[in-house]
């Protein structure tokens, strides 16, 4: 996935709530503090952020965000592809 997870080790109190909350096993304890170990597995749900009372966890969305113009053009291309498929199948 395209998310980066960081833990502020100064804020982390080692409560392990993030470990209990995360469904993909993003965190391990190292030296009494939570450490993200599986960035590529993060789903971006931010359940760990909500569980952390110390506000020590940050989830950053690294996905590419398309402009409205790009999204509009992709929609036009989808429409053209759909029309072509209909034309080839005789409009069925």
Overview of the structural elements:
- The structure is a single chain.
- The protein has helices at residues 17-21, 47-51, 68-88, and strands at residues 3-7, 27-30, 33-36, 57-61.
- It has 92 residues and is α+β, with helices and mostly antiparallel strands.
- The protein has two domains: 3-61, Alpha-Beta Plaits; 65-92.
- The strands form two sheets. The chain has a two-stranded antiparallel sheet. Strands 2-3 form a two-stranded antiparallel sheet.
- It is elongated and about 65 Å long.
- It starts with a strand and ends with a helix.
In CATH terms, what is the architecture of the largest domain? 2-Layer Sandwich
Basic shape: elongated
Radius of gyration: 21 Å
Number of spatially distinct domains: 2
H-E string:
EHEEHEH
What is the level 1 CATH name of the largest domain? Alpha Beta
- Please give the count of helices: 3
Helix and strand content put the structural class at alpha+beta
| Cα end-to-end separation | 38 Å
Averaged pLDDT: 91
Strand order of the largest sheet: 1-4
> Strand content of the residues, in percent?
15-25%
Q: Helix amount, in percent?
A: 25-40%
| Strand segment tally | 4
Tell me which oligomeric state these chains represent: single chain
Biggest beta-sheet profile: 2 strands, antiparallel
């Amino acid at each position: 996935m395209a998310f980066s997870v960081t833990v502020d080790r100064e804020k982390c109190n080692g409560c392990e709530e993030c470990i209990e909350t995360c469904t993909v096993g993003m965190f391990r304890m190292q030296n009494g503090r939570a450490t993200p170990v599986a960035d590529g597995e993060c789903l971006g749900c931010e359940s760990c952020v909500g569980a952390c009372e110390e506000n020590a966890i940050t989830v950053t969305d690294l996905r590419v965000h398309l402009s409205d113009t790009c999204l509009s053009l992709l929609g036009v291309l989808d429409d053209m592809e759909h029309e072509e498929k209909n034309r080839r199948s005789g409009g069925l």
